[in-house]
Amino acid sequence: MTKNYLYILLFPALLVNGSAFAQKKAKPDPLKAEVIKSVDTRFDVLTDLSDKIWAFEEIAFQETQSAAALADYAEQLGFKVTRGVAEIPTAFVAEYGSGSPIIGILGEFDALPGLSQNKVPTKSPLNDNAPGHGCGHNLFGVASLGAAAAIKDLIAEGKLKGTVRFYGTPAEEKFFGKLWMIRAGLFDDVDVVMDWHPAAETKAAVQKGLALVDFQVEFFGQAAHASADPWNGRSASDALELYTNGINYYREHIKPTVRIHYHIQDAGQVVNVVPDYSRIWVRVRDSSRDGLEPVWKQVEKMASGAAILANVDYKVSLISGIHEVLVNRTGSYALQKNLEALGPISYTEDEQVFSKKIQESTDKPQIGLVSIIEPMEETDEHSMGGSTDVGDVSYVVPTIRLSATTAPNGTPWHSWAVVAAGGMSIGHKGMGYAAKALSMTMVDLFQNPELVNQIKAEFKESKGDYVYKGIIPDGPPPIHSNLQ
Amino acid sequence: MTKNYLYILLFPALLVNGSAFAQKKAKPDPLKAEVIKSVDTRFDVLTDLSDKIWAFEEIAFQETQSAAALADYAEQLGFKVTRGVAEIPTAFVAEYGSGSPIIGILGEFDALPGLSQNKVPTKSPLNDNAPGHGCGHNLFGVASLGAAAAIKDLIAEGKLKGTVRFYGTPAEEKFFGKLWMIRAGLFDDVDVVMDWHPAAETKAAVQKGLALVDFQVEFFGQAAHASADPWNGRSASDALELYTNGINYYREHIKPTVRIHYHIQDAGQVVNVVPDYSRIWVRVRDSSRDGLEPVWKQVEKMASGAAILANVDYKVSLISGIHEVLVNRTGSYALQKNLEALGPISYTEDEQVFSKKIQESTDKPQIGLVSIIEPMEETDEHSMGGSTDVGDVSYVVPTIRLSATTAPNGTPWHSWAVVAAGGMSIGHKGMGYAAKALSMTMVDLFQNPELVNQIKAEFKESKGDYVYKGIIPDGPPPIHSNLQ
Amino acid sequence: MTKNYLYILLFPALLVNGSAFAQKKAKPDPLKAEVIKSVDTRFDVLTDLSDKIWAFEEIAFQETQSAAALADYAEQLGFKVTRGVAEIPTAFVAEYGSGSPIIGILGEFDALPGLSQNKVPTKSPLNDNAPGHGCGHNLFGVASLGAAAAIKDLIAEGKLKGTVRFYGTPAEEKFFGKLWMIRAGLFDDVDVVMDWHPAAETKAAVQKGLALVDFQVEFFGQAAHASADPWNGRSASDALELYTNGINYYREHIKPTVRIHYHIQDAGQVVNVVPDYSRIWVRVRDSSRDGLEPVWKQVEKMASGAAILANVDYKVSLISGIHEVLVNRTGSYALQKNLEALGPISYTEDEQVFSKKIQESTDKPQIGLVSIIEPMEETDEHSMGGSTDVGDVSYVVPTIRLSATTAPNGTPWHSWAVVAAGGMSIGHKGMGYAAKALSMTMVDLFQNPELVNQIKAEFKESKGDYVYKGIIPDGPPPIHSNLQ
Amino acid sequence: MTKNYLYILLFPALLVNGSAFAQKKAKPDPLKAEVIKSVDTRFDVLTDLSDKIWAFEEIAFQETQSAAALADYAEQLGFKVTRGVAEIPTAFVAEYGSGSPIIGILGEFDALPGLSQNKVPTKSPLNDNAPGHGCGHNLFGVASLGAAAAIKDLIAEGKLKGTVRFYGTPAEEKFFGKLWMIRAGLFDDVDVVMDWHPAAETKAAVQKGLALVDFQVEFFGQAAHASADPWNGRSASDALELYTNGINYYREHIKPTVRIHYHIQDAGQVVNVVPDYSRIWVRVRDSSRDGLEPVWKQVEKMASGAAILANVDYKVSLISGIHEVLVNRTGSYALQKNLEALGPISYTEDEQVFSKKIQESTDKPQIGLVSIIEPMEETDEHSMGGSTDVGDVSYVVPTIRLSATTAPNGTPWHSWAVVAAGGMSIGHKGMGYAAKALSMTMVDLFQNPELVNQIKAEFKESKGDYVYKGIIPDGPPPIHSNLQ
User: What are the alphabetically sorted keywords of the record (chains A, B, C, D) (predicted)?
Assistant: First the structure.
């Protein structure tokens, strides 16, 4: 797998002299003005759509209404829509135009369990225990589709040539739907893919995140009356507990970039029976797919050790796993130029008050919304934080990623606060901004074949001789697992 | 609390010469023939009622239909019924007659979660994940009411004097409803109480079972992203796991009569968050309430140790606890004589085939239904096995207990097999048999004041200076806890 | 292995009518008077010898001076002594006479580590961290040799015919020297064996004690700097700790008669290195060799589970194991008669004061020395408590066992208090008493072939078709292990 | 404590223009030539002294002969020697000259347990289980004294003015002797301190290492027979094991810069007794004294949690703790210039063969001795690796540190391989080289007051308002702890 991101050595011209596309940026591009206008025109419709998906609050692989709303709108706009791709009812592809280049854009729309929240700046569940859009995916899919629509307009008007393709990608929060979409070959013919993510800042996203793998361990023992004859029982809960003991001891012997976490899902049903079944969800992460491998294998193997200790049987089942992002700095730099051209989002006093209230409620510095376009960051060798299945896409096709502000600075992610901000004007503004930045950059990709070539060259170099293989089990995607 | 059951020294006459009541047994009692006939007459109605409750399959404190069916029938028979006693909607008292003696009889009717089963001799759920009568309580309440009805007939006809009182006692399987009925004073004026339990054999029940206490431990930590900043998290799951580690180490240092078991109820909700909440249900048992005390207190205290280890907060909440049974051998001996008079239950070839099939399915010796009335057992100093909230009643009023066969020999209790047998003729026969043996013994109690005095004398001696106090928290009974 | 000890059914005559030998007891036996006198005559010499061994305080397999002192004395008395038997330098056999019967008597003489103590009734080490005779074996070997000497006198005088054989049996406290003496065939030709043990009461010893097995588990990991690169280390200490976690979880699932305990011997040498080696001594006990087997095998197997969890290698090495005692009640009854004839030991006021002081120092009731000969106890199906390698002898040859008082009632065994009492007159009296009771019973055995036959018949019946096999590894005895 | 090492902003002149002293370097300094010659002249004596200390192999606080050898030689050279300073018999100060500046130099000489080794390139203990100089301290003290001697010569000749002071600092490997020397005020009047350390490379040492704290936790339970009545025991070993469980769970919640390790020192003495005593040595590290604090306090507090879980008492005793190094880059840069002037060490073919053999034996790349002077490294914000009590000196007085090659590249430190190389010519060469580089830099310090001022200015800036306080308990140093 890729060891060095040697873009600096490979593409010195980009940095020293500026490249062709960078020079173009100096002359304001009329097509970019058109896509900006196009997003503005549709802003109310997009906002509406986003609010609907916010209210649907559907979790991974259950996003029936959300996927339909997006697909219906794409169809209505004239896209050719293919629903239920990759054996996933809520996955779809919406395409417009024909021929090269083929530029893809990703749209997510799944919610997170337990985060339901009203559009107010203090914790206040809308529906008890219901899901909520704590990762802003109600905005994500809509903005991407808005960007695709703006490009579609230009293709329809003959101002751009090629194909724009919107990917409706479900289950990013759990299971990682893109893995099966890749397996189904849906990304095989694309030149470049773009995506964005709601965030608390606005920038070209050039960190790798973490690779991860999810697997499930089940233990199978022998039930017995916990008081009358516990010696006839073999406890699946004992095995699970000894397994987590083992995992916690193992923490001393993993590198600082590795993370292991688990969720005890079932350790017995009643107090007076030696449990004959237990189940735990285990996640292993590292800053690269390579580093992940030996830890993953050891944590899997440990299940057999725990089973021996508790004299029970066990089963390890791969759920799925994702790659860290293969960052494309050439593409990111093109995006960065468009961010600089757009400038930061501006906010009203009310939005700042709302934001400071959120910051107060979540014990963060009450500095409101911070709206600056910083110079593009370095890409850390070991960037930590979260993970995304866009990582896998980035190993299949060059991928350019944007972060756009949809919540106040410092907001804890995957929290009620993201739900609140994502359901009102702060989120809507970020969504519109993202649609503009993405479509402006797509204009570059459509207009500048050399840029696409440079992006591809970096991708090829970075990937090296690594042969991508998605971390998924054989068989259909686990589309019913969330119903258990 | 009572340390010696010195009935042998105290009541030598009972054993050597036989007592007044025992001598009466020799002369067949015409009233006993009447109660037997009375049960036979109502057998179809009782069977019907039992099958209804079997089908209601309602769990602890949720037994609305089951309690209503029993109470309605009692009312229809002429009993004076008081519903919703002791702040429990499904607890009731049905009384007939007036004045002394007051003889009580207990009737349980709650089912167990997850044991739903068809009336067939192999595992076959009727409703997936639904409860089932794995402890035979569909038969329990009905037989007791049938016995009470037979006595009522005699009182109504003026052949017996006094009061018969049926206690509809919910939630025996969990929470232990009788504790609150005792607290409400419902047993204060009774002379003797009888009960029975479905079993795989027929005998006077003279073992103590185990005292137990149930409490819940909750840990409260600090959530954090399990990958991005686990060092900002304090894990409630860690605390719970270290608590169970501690409990398992403690096992070396408890007496062989002690049992500790637990049910991990919640150790986090998602894999990528350091859990800020966890909950475990802990049960401690010993062969006596006295022995229970120090272990209970230590296991409670250990929660604070685990909380320190994981740097979290914790809360221990008493659920409830029960006493071992204060066995009354004088009363049991009276019952034993009636069992010997009745003789064993006889079974059809079909019932034996059904039973052997159950035994085959549960890996037990295929010996069918064993139907023998053995001599009364010794009462073990430390009898092991299960526990019952009848133990608490037995510390408040002298209690005579019967086991009657409702399932094949060797049937694992709290299993689908008990549900199956309890829903067909094997269970029905046991129910009828119990109703007869109980009402015959009640005839003894009504007719023989000296017997009642001897029973009370043994009770007083056995209890000694122990002052009964139910192990329940202040406040109302946890009638909604099963809905969580 | 033996399941039933049906001596009551088999030998009813012994209990109901009394047997031939029992009737003999009624007529005072002149030879018994002679052995009593013989012990009294040698009492000062025996006391001296006992005090020497007390002062040698030599632990298992290191008892060079103690063994030599006993063997030298036997030689001086005219016994034929064979030293260094069974590949053990401190094991020896001392024999006198010829032909049948051959009656053996066992003598132990090893001390316990860390129990050094002055002859005072409060804790006061004689030599810091030195061993001490906390099990009274300084008295054990000497009394047995005294008894053998008394019999030797009678053989020498032609009053008895046959062979008396003293076994100098080292390492009873650890390693269990008798196992290798049995393997060497040293017990093959004996008719009956006797032994005794210092105790806090005087009685025929008719409880089985516990079978046990000792084994060692070693884990082999990979060292690494604990700070610089712990991820390159695989910790043998982790494995050991996870192994003990597993053992403690297993405690829920063993029968009340089983015990598992362990001694962590090495879990690393310095704080800043991931340990590459660890070692633990594990002991498993049950009330029978049969019950031991599955638990032993599971605890052994668990080592492999812990090794997998910590990603290290492991090795399990059998140390040795012993059988529970195959009690011979026929022989015990003969001994009991002699105890009754001898009556209890009497003590001086000073000895009682000394004893009460010991009891005060060890938090025991200050009742002094209790000196009563109770009727012979029942043999419990599951007798708990300690273990002895006499158990193995008892499976090879019928064995009669005595407990004689050498310490105050309630004295915690294996403590400084036993050392103190065993070094002064209380211990000396018990030693003399034991020598008398043993030699009196040996007189019975030599004089009464029918008794020997009955003893052998019970032995045969009790043992059944069990084929004895000592629990020892191949190869020489571990005579140097205590020097590690 | 210091948060920023702003030397770059503070001393731009050093980097851009070069400083006064750096410019001087261009003109070969005649005094530097003299100190080089001085070291060469004494090389054989120094080598001899180093080999003696190598053979003494004395561990922390037991370095009687090693300290005496160094102090005697200093005395013989004309230094004024004060032995037994800071209540430590093996600590001493050797001083020459008078007045300002006072330049100190540190010399360590303690060995490590268990590393005894012959002077051969494969593992081969010289004395079984004996200590060995696995950290090269036989060379350390000698080279520093050699450097001091060279300066002494110049002072004696009137070529330099001021005081040179050699600190004989024992117990660096354990207990950290310098802490008590600082407490005794021995560093209060020094201007600058120098030291060096044997290593596998040659460079100015500009990384911070880790702060750490050592403490001991003892648990006190109640002994009981592990088989007869374990329920009367409260196990100190259980407490210790639950404590380590807790520590391992805690690892998830510490920052990547933190390390926690422990050494189980005593968890019971025999297998058949519930242990009433256990002891564990715990070490906590972080990249700064500040970061250490909360983790240290939590791990201490956890002892109380484990004690509650096992129902035992506990005691936490501080052993000692050290600060990370306050790097002085100004001083390091002066040293760097001298390294560049000296050039790398050259090795013979035999030395390379010896080195490659060591590398082969320790699974390292067989590249021999690497001898290059690289440009001075950046100082990492969080440098990991080991720790040194020089860290504490560096918080009291500006400290300049050197690493000099005494072992082949890649040699695992604290291993037999370091012992081997440190006892032959490879080690000797490094020792001589260090003496030269150190004395050359001391020449700079004596000759260039402005350099000393700049060094002090950086020190003051880096330290900020942090008030140094050594992490040691009250009372005398633990000079007898290693004899336990």
Answer: Hydrolase, Signal
DSSP letter assigned to residue A373 = -
Beta strand pairing call for B92-97 and B163-168? antiparallel
CATH 3.30.70.360 range(s) for chain C read 211-321
By three-state DSSP, how is residue B40 classified?
helix
Coil vs helix vs strand at D404: strand
Inter-residue contact D165 to D200 (CB < 8 Å) = no
Select A7-207+324-463's CATH number: 2.30.30.40, 3.40.630.10, 3.30.465.10, 3.60.15.10.
3.40.630.10
- Contact of D240 with D275, CB cutoff 8 Å: no
Q: Return the SS3 of A260.
A: strand
Say what the ipTM of the complex is. Answer: 0.89
Question: Looking at chain C, which residues constitute the CATH 3.40.630.10 domain(s)?
Answer: 7-207+324-463
Backbone φ, ψ for residue C317 (5° rounding): -125, 120
Q: Does B124 touch chain C (CB under 8 A)?
A: no
**Least CA distance to B274: which residue of chain A?**
A261
Cβ A237–B264 below 8 Å, yes or no?
yes
Distance CA D372, CA C265 (A): 46
CA neighbor of C222 nearest in space, from C276, C184, C152: C276
Long-range contacts of D480-484 (CB under 8 A, 24+ apart): D480/D61, D481/D61, D481/D175, D481/D319, D482/D59, D482/D60, D482/D61, D482/D62, D482/D174, D482/D175, D483/D62
pLDDT band at B483 (very low <50, low <70, confident <90, very high): low
Element (H, E) at D233: none
Using the CB atoms, write b or e for D107-138: b if 16+ within 10 Å.
bbbbbbbbbbbbbbbeeeebeeeebbbbbbbb
Report how far apart, in Å, the C-alpha atoms of A126 and of each of A133, A334, B484 are. Answer: 12, 40, 20
CA distance B248 to chain C (A): 5
Map residue A1 onto helix, strand or coil.
coil
Q: What is the mean pLDDT of chain D?
A: 93
A245: chain C residues, CB-CB within 8 Å: 242, 245, 309
Per-residue pLDDT tens digits for D165-205? 999 999 999 999 999 999 999 999 999 999 999 999 999 99
For residue A275, the chain C residues in CB contact (below 8 A) are none
Which segments of B27-177 does DSSP mark as H helices, in order? 30-56, 64-77, 137-156
Residue-wise pLDDT for B424-437, tens only, equals 999 999 999 999 99
The whole model's pTM is what?
Answer: 0.92
- Phi then psi for residue C437, to 5 deg, are -60, -40
Burial annotation A212-248 (CB, 10 A radius, 16+ → b, else e): bbbbbbbbebbbbbbbbebbebbbbbbbbbbbbbbbb
Which amino acid is located at C302 in the chain? M
Rounded-to-integer distance, Cα D68 and Cα D421, Å: 24
Residues A117-133 have a mean pLDDT of 93
Contact between C459 and C398 (Cβ < 8 Å): yes
User: Dihedral of the CA atoms D121, D127, D130, D136 (nearest 10)?
Assistant: -30
CA–CA gap between residue A285 and residue C185 (Å, rounded): 62
Does an H or E element contain C153, and which?
helix C137-156
- Name the H helices within A251-347: 289-310, 329-342
Side chain identity at residue D12, one-letter code: P
Q: The dihedral of CA C54, C59, C63, C64: what is its sign? A: negative
Q: How many angstroms separate the CA atoms of D137 and D116, rounded?
A: 14
Backbone CA torsion sign across B25, B29, B32, B37: positive
CATH 3.40.630.30 applies to domain B211-321:
no
Structure tokens belonging to residue D260 = 């926690």
Chain B residues closer than 8 Å to A264 by CB: 237, 264, 267-268
